[in-house]
TrEMBL record, chains A, B:
Residues 76-172 form the Methyltransferase domain. One of its GO terms (cellular component) is nucleus. Residues 1-12 have a biased composition (Low complexity). GO terms for biological process: methylation. Residues 197-367 form the Protein arginine N-methyltransferase domain. Its EC number is 2.1.1.319. SUPFAM superfamilies: S-adenosyl-L-methionine-dependent methyltransferases (SSF53335). It comes from Brassica carinata (Ethiopian mustard). It catalyses: L-arginyl-[protein] + 2 S-adenosyl-L-methionine = N(omega),N(omega)-dimethyl-L-arginyl-[protein] + 2 S-adenosyl-L-homocysteine + 2 H(+). Ring-like homodimer. This is Protein arginine N-methyltransferase PRMT10. GO terms for molecular function: histone methyltransferase activity; protein-arginine omega-N asymmetric methyltransferase activity.
Amino acid sequence: MGSSSNGGAMSGRAPGTVGGVKSSPPPVDKEVDYANYFCTYSFLYHQKDMLSDRVRMDAYYNAVFENKHHFVGKTVLDVGTGSGILAIWSAQAGARKVYAVEATTMADHARALVKANGLEDIVEVIQGSVEDISLPEKVDVIISEWMGYFLLRESMFDSVISARDRWLKPTGVMYPSHARMWLAPIKSTLSDRKKNDLDGAMADWDNFSDEIKSYYGVDMSVLTKPFAQEQEKHYIQTAVWNDLNPLQVIGTPTLVKEMDCLTATVSEIEEVRSNVTSVINGHTTLCGFGGWFDVQFRGRKEDPAQQDIELTTAPSERHCTHWGQQVFIMSNPINVEEGDNLNLGLVMSRSKENHRLMEVELSCEIKEASGNPKESFKKTYFIE
Amino acid sequence: MGSSSNGGAMSGRAPGTVGGVKSSPPPVDKEVDYANYFCTYSFLYHQKDMLSDRVRMDAYYNAVFENKHHFVGKTVLDVGTGSGILAIWSAQAGARKVYAVEATTMADHARALVKANGLEDIVEVIQGSVEDISLPEKVDVIISEWMGYFLLRESMFDSVISARDRWLKPTGVMYPSHARMWLAPIKSTLSDRKKNDLDGAMADWDNFSDEIKSYYGVDMSVLTKPFAQEQEKHYIQTAVWNDLNPLQVIGTPTLVKEMDCLTATVSEIEEVRSNVTSVINGHTTLCGFGGWFDVQFRGRKEDPAQQDIELTTAPSERHCTHWGQQVFIMSNPINVEEGDNLNLGLVMSRSKENHRLMEVELSCEIKEASGNPKESFKKTYFIE
């Protein structure tokens, strides 16, 4: 039974001890987590992809170099250093000492890069999970690029929280300092395309099923329904990476989550619940929803940034980040009018099978501007 | 750090207790094995792909129904039943009782399929690793479709051996009974294409490296060599799935492994060593090597098949199986002449990181028909 597909793993991150008062799921087995998540980050081509994201790079570069006061003579912890880029910038910006923690063998490359750039006296690369390693001191700054699709995929912020609670001085600053999640109604040809793909898959199943019956004497019809469910999940219910054009956003983007990186807890990101309203901006077709995030580098109230920097992954004419946006499609697009109100409910939680993947329950009630109810629907999606 | 790639896992199989007198590697953690391997098999679309392979299906169907004497009134164990197809055929061919073992939740679908086809009194679906489950009796037949790319990728035969040693009666029969691995010199545009891809990746790296230096003040050159090694491994050293045309086979196919499924041990498949000679059949270019396998259903000497059946994955004009062939490319193709002799050395062993993946050391000495040495080379490949 030859197969070329690569199991069910995704790219991901370190198991975090789940803090907070609610009962925690059992800690993730580290080897399983590695097989499921970390391993992609040990490849240079993957680091290169992220280093090639100019929007991402510019934001962090400017955040550091426009705010040297946070770095000069200070101590820094880079959580998930990868190639070491943020640690290197922190040192170049004047840090006295930088601890660059990386769970995978990419740490070896980070160490080489640090040395090749003459910074080995400042940057110490430590291979390990940030939850497991020990530092000789607390730090003034925690810098990390931890954001996944729709902000929270990969659940890497758990590790940043863990690092912050153990290693950040009471006066310390988080880079980035804040994060937000956005959701907007969109039009997109993806809905039709995925619906067609699904129909095609089911037509193909019908032919297949007939052939197995004719040639091999086995009735497969009992598996038609489970196959349809599996394909529905794959084609319709799995969030799609997309680079949306702003013209596809057909109503007000809504803020579904705001997070202060200095105070956020795992509890508040384990389950994200939000009720928001979006107003349609024209006569068009509602095909689904787009989700994205932004982060800000504002420092802290007592020690603010001199230059606020924002990294946004919102739909843009000119910019595309490697995060794209996540599209949640509707198999049955709905005609909408300017002024229609969408009452949106979102509940995002972690997949039981893999805490680094998300389940998203989206509900939508459409009302005319007059208040007359139009349509409503509810669907569960998966960010895989 | 968003990433869509799916970790480093592959499709795969149950951890086998590694038998034999040599020291064994530590048993594979089951959850890691699931994350790395098994999980793909729990999807119906993947089972459908295999069930849609007519060559595979016809071979097993004919093997069973042309040899009912092995099944009528007998007991059968299907190792890795998947959708249950082989178990169902065994029952339809007259088996008294069939134990269908499946490690993943596909077992639920197998059970439904058995019932929908009226065979629940004969076929008992058991979810679990065949190494772990218990049967109430030994069986007359072990049937299994365990073959991976180049026969041994996935290392599933370990589980068949384990099942055979525990559950096959002394008089029992293996389906299939024999297996062979073949290697042949080939011509292929893949070599040039992959070489171009590699060159392109390195040119892209150079641009990238220049940009990181100009825009971000970091010298990446120390990572050029590791990046090149990683890309060489990816583009050149990773065996490529291909559907070879017989005209691409430019020399005698050589038999690198023969296996009797009734007596094979894990030791003999953990490392496959072979020295063979192939003779070039015309004036052409040696671009690499193609590997494939075949299996036979011959029964056993004391209880042979009435109709020998063969399932071959050799290059064919008319047939293509989902296994294809595995191509080991040469970055520097060599001109060869009719009558040139290729002395080939092959050593195939399991990857230390994942016992279900293979490392292949290929060496080749080319001599003219006259005996004059021409060229030789040696390369390590990876079957991922």
